[in-house]
Description:
It is a single chain. This protein is mostly helical. The chain has one domain: Up-down Bundle (F1FO ATP Synthase). Helices cover 91% and strands 0% of the residues. The chain has helices spanning 2-40, 45-75. Helix 1 packs antiparallel against helix 2. The chain is elongated, with a radius of gyration of 18 Å.
Amino acid sequence: MEVAVALKYIAAAIMIGLGAAGTGVGFGILGGKLLEGSARQPEMAPMLQGKMFLIAGLLDAVPMIGVGIAMYLIFAA
Length: 77
């Protein structure tokens, strides 16, 4: 029984950690592409920035869902 509890905590930690790592990589790529697009066409920078903030909000939802599922695993299951 104790092994199952330990595995549950390990699974929750991996879920939160990989979600955070994936989001970090995604934000890095997103920021790099924004800078690249703004450098190529400076007149498009405001439109690109607006779209970047939209995608950043959607990208930020991924680790929040992972945290919610991990908390469910820890406390409810």
